[in-house]
Design a protein that fits this description.
The protein is an all-alpha fold. The protein is built from 21 helices and four strands. About 5% of the residues have low confidence. This is Metal transporter.
Amino acid sequence: MALVQIQETPHWKKLMSFVGPGFLVSVAYLDPGNLETDLQAGADHKYKLLWIVLIGLTFALIIQSCSANLGVATGKHLSQHCRTEYPNPVNYCLWILAEVAVIAADIPEVIGTAFALNILFNIPIWGGVLLTGLNTLLILGVQRYGIRKLEVAIGGLVLVVGGCFCSVMIHAKPNAEEIVKGMFVPRLTGGRAIRDAIALLGALIMPHNLFLHSALVISRKIPYTFDGIRSARKYFLIESGIALFIAFLINVAVVSVSGSVCSNPNISAERKAHCKSITLDSAAFLLKNALGNWSSKLYALSLLASGQSSTVTGTYAGQYIMQGFLDLKIKLWVRNLVTRCIAITPSLITCIIGGSSGAASLIIFASMILLFELPFALIPLLRFTSSEAKMGHHRSSKPVCIISWLLGFCSIGINIYFLTTSLIGWTMTNQRPKAASILIGLAILPIMMIYVAMLTYLTFKTETPVNLEMNSVRTDETGSEKESDFSSIHRAHEIDVENIISK
């Protein structure tokens, strides 16, 4: 199947040729796990944490643009670079961690879809879990008609999520002035606000998204000259900015709906109790009681679209991860079936035994795994995009390097803090003998030490020498552009991408 051709004129048609990867990536910022975090932030703090959402998605745009630049400038995606950069033991560890991240991200999507089916059609949660695999296989069937058709399908699901929440927000009538103030006036009042702010930031960057974006951009057929790559980087940045801006507006709508409903002075005691600990399931009952039955149906429809679109992009990310780390290519439906079975198993068992409350706890556990996993994708990405040997003249500029590394370390620090405090809280607050808590703490300590050691290795490892012909474009002594043998290497990679798309 042919790659997407770029129309050079007019400019709006050229931009439309690049539209697609950013919207597939933006789905991760609208997945059921993010929706639950947004709902709780709005319930607890009304609109006061919207500035956190703005900062988080601005950071996400910087990191995602680094991921796109890596793919555009080198013709290789992140997992392929990891395979050539690290020794086999490290490479296999990174592959396992990346696969675990895909599965962990899939759990909230499976459960969110099951909740949506329960609200819409009164299907038992465990039955909804079983149906999610079939739904995803049907949507993935669209990709047989071309990557553009799949991009349109996912873009449509994103608009469904946005349309549903915007409709509910209009009916909830939040205070527009307070929303704008919440976006641009930073406020953190109390320990609960700090915790929820950390949860909002931690939920935004998904590890598998970094692998996915660097691979999706290679589906465009661009001229591999200095100007061609620079132009592609610019258009992908614009496209990602548009997609993430839409994701930002949807996140604002979710927070605003929750904030408006839960801050209503006439709210009943029962609804107030729901606001203290909102789950994907309880949010439907809250909206139904506050705004009417139609609002819970719209919420369920948005949850269904969110879960399905996130599952599809997660499957694509898993395919690229396996192909890059192991140079192993399997059919997409086989990959999806394996991932579905692995993700469905814990979700199904939890839903049968623990019901809705157990499913909500599993979402929290999956989110903690993603916090743990993020640095193992983020640090290699920042290392590679800062490398002149890999990126040539398209490496990140010094200001971008400084900003991205600072943001990266802040994100990693926030995640480690949130993960550590959550583990400590779980160890100390559960009803168990003090000796048992001490033993659990001693067991966790060496794991955290190994974790820090691995991050230190990834951050400071000496760079593996790269053959100069692997750089995309060099300039000769007169400063004129000279295309290297990279174009033939890129064509070989195009064939790999075509194989993935066609399967």
